[in-house]
User: Which sequence fits this backbone?
């Protein structure tokens, strides 16, 4: 049962993302993600002007009259949302938590999908699968997706992207457009991403927060690793400490970026500090040019 605050949050996300989809993203989404190609539609009598290569020679031989095959573009897609609910996503130092940003992005992708008559499924994960919803169509289903992402109370704290991708392989029989929404604090996911990319169209949606790269000078601070529970007391007025923190954070991000590039998946980097619209528009335009 959702609280009143959660219901308000669901409604707010619905209004905002529906507006963005109808006014901004619907066309870009359709251009960026194509169907699986051409599928057989029917056999009909040959008409002057039809291409010779479309003739169905088996039917023509059987009937004694030239027939041709007709094909139609298979537009319908299945969109899967893999949303990270590990403890590190319940952090945000500027406008919102990374988990709230993940919920809004999931809603945006889901509404874009159903606007184009695609199915949407959801997997919420930590170091194990917390929740899985099979792909379906319709606004009611998308609202459930938003509710589940906002209200999930995960039992795990760590991140295992590989396990989530392996689960998807077991339960999904067809190719999907796969959005993996995570802060990607899982250095061991490269091979799993690479394998998933051979079958699915994988997009890594990377959640960032500025305080994860730069410490402000505010004196003694107790820090806690959200996924391991380890705590540290640090003096943030120490310039050398802040510089070392920034170097390590930059190295971790560079390693994350190398992991995604080597896995050959597209990435959208968004953060809690600024609106995500420009990052998404750049991604959609890049995909459209590639198509």
Assistant:
């Amino acid at each position: 049962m959702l609280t009143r605050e959660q219901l308000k949050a669901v409604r707010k996300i619905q209004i905002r993302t529906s507006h963005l989809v109808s006014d901004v993203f619907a066309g870009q989404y359709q251009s960026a993600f194509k169907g699986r190609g051409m599928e057989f539609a029917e056999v009909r009598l040959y008409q002057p002007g039809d291409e010779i290569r479309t003739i169905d020679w088996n039917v023509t031989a059987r009937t004694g009259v030239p027939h041709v095959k007709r094909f139609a573009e298979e537009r319908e897609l299945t969109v899967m949302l893999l949303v990270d609910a590990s403890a590190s996503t319940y952090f945000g130092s500027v406008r919102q938590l990374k988990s709230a940003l993940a919920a809004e992005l999931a809603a945006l992708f889901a509404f874009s999908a159903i606007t184009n008559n695609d199915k949407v499924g959801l997997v919420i994960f930590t170091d194990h699968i917390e929740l899985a919803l099979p792909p379906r169509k319709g606004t009611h289903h998308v609202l459930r997706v938003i509710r589940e992402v906002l209200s999930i109370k995960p039992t795990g704290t760590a991140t295992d992207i590989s396990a989530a991708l392996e689960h998807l392989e077991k339960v999904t029989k067809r190719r999907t457009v796969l959005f993996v929404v995570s802060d990607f604090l899982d250095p061991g996911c490269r091979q799993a991403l690479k394998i998933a990319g051979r079958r699915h169209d994988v997009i890594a949606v990377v959640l960032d927060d500025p305080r994860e790269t730069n410490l402000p000078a505010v004196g003694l601070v107790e820090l806690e690793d959200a996924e391991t529970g380890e705590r540290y007391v640090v003096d943030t007025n120490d310039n050398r400490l802040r510089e070392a923190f920034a170097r390590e954070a930059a190295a971790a991000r560079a390693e994350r970026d190398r992991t995604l590039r080597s896995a050959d998946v597209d990435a959208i980097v968004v953060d809690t500090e600024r609106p995500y619209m420009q990052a998404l528009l750049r991604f959609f335009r890049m995909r459209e040019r590639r198509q």
Summary: Strands lie at 37-45, 67-74, 78-84, 119-125, 129-136, 177-182, 201-208, 220-224, 231-235, 266-271. The chain has two domains: 4-28+76-290, 38-73. The first helix runs from residue 4 to 32. The two ends are 43 Å apart (CA to CA).
